[in-house]
Amino acid sequence: MEGELYNFFKVWLSVLASLIYCHAIGRIVPKGSARFFCLLPILCLFLLLPLNLSSIPFRGMTAFFIAWLANFKLFLYAFGKGPLSSSDNNPSISFGRFLLVACFPIKIKRESHPNGEDKQNPAPSKVHKSIPNYAVKGLLLAMVVRVYNYREFIHPNVILLLYFLHIYFFLELILAMVGAMARALLGLELEPQFNEPYLSTSLQDFWGRRWNLMVTSILRPTAYEPFLRTSAPIIGRRWAPIPAIFGTFVVSAVMHELMFYYVCLEKPTWDITWFFLLHGVCSMVEVTFKKAVAGKWSLPRLISTPLTVGFLLVSGCWLFFPQFLRCKVDVRVLEEYSAVSAFLKNADRAFSYLNRSSNWSIVNTIKD
Fold first, then answer.
1. Under 8 Å between Cβ of 192 and 300
2. What DSSP letter does each residue of 336-354 carry, written as one string?
């Protein structure tokens, strides 16, 4: 465990040094191809750094933070776009803010327009959740991990459902902790990363407004908008979002396959890609139908929410979550949790021993 913590420290020290270089390049080299080629070695380095970690949680979260989110942000930064660049909404970005926004999954809340809506990224009203909300989810996550010990007595489909709960609770808690730390350091209001995805009324609502909103916000300028601009002259502005949605799901599929490789370190079966392509096609059909009826008809929430969540669970149990079974992620993660627990217990014993020794030394000094 000590060796893994040392590797983790080295990886993130490399990330820090790389981002210092990127910030300096942004001050020296004008946006465009020249800046992109200057940043290209860092983009490649960020793809390799997570492979230096053996712990699944450390490797997986580091890959998500730098190989996906940071690389996409730096790609936008190369061309003077994205959250790392100066803009009308963000006229000057400090060095500290640059580092935090680049390497962590956070998004600074924009100033609202007079009508109370961000016209570029409309979204439903979101509020930060209470501490009891996160406490309950932390307790549920601990219960899910505990249930894994009895997996041989549990139906495989129930195990797949537990994977879904594990991913949701783990991601929301980790991203909330990172967001809270960044909020304290920056002193700014940040966008929440999740918005109760189990209340989704459609696939568009789930992927666009409720699930892992940091990924949604970074895919919009890097995938959706370029596809939209390409499609608009061909099929018109009204229908251009349809192929743009599918193109975005293709990019998301590729990145999720890469994330799964970091987690499992095994040759992909491409089931993850098929999962996102299926959801891309279904989202295209959904948006086409909405445009056709033009708001004249819609399903009640009591029907649309169970249908949406049901479709997500069924398709996930078919294509997405079996990849965890194939890699035996739950078994490996439990072993790592046990190793962490043993490490913390040993550290606590060592600290207690040093504390008692120090107290005895003080007592003996006083007696003398």
1. no
2. HHHHHHHHHHHHHHHHHHH
Dist CA 18 CA 20 (whole Å) = 5
In the block, which residue shows the tokens 């007079």? 114
CA 343 distance to own-chain centroid: 27
DSSP track, 244-286: HHHHHHHHHHHHHHHHHHHHH-S---SHHHHHHHHHHHHHHHH
221: its two tokens: 């300028």
Measure the CA–CA gap between 213 and 171, rounded to whole angstroms: 11
- Smallest CA-to-CA distance from 172 within 200, 204, 135, 147 is with 135
Closest to 206 in 3D by CA, of 288, 135, 124: 124
Closest CA to 195 of 209, 207, 179: 209
How many CB atoms are closer than 10 A to CB 203?
Answer: 21
Residue 226 confidence (pLDDT) above 90: yes
Structure tokens at 280: 């891309």
Helix orientation angle between 271-293 and 241-264, rounded to the nearest 10 degrees: 160
Query: pLDDT tens digit string along 326-353?
Result: 877 767 766 666 666 665 566 555 556 5
Express each pLDDT in 30-63 by its tens digit: 999 999 999 999 999 999 999 999 888 889 899 9
The set of long-range contacts for 89-98, using a CB threshold of 8 Å and a minimum separation of 24, is: 95/23, 96/185, 96/186, 97/186, 98/19, 98/23
Do 23 and 303 touch, CB atoms closer than 8 A?
no
Q: What are the DSSP calls for 123-174, one per residue? A: -----PPPHHHHHHHHHHHHHHHHHGGGGGGS-HHHHHHHHHHHHHHHHHHH
Q: How far apart are the first and last CA of the chain?
A: 41
pTM of this prediction? Answer: 0.81
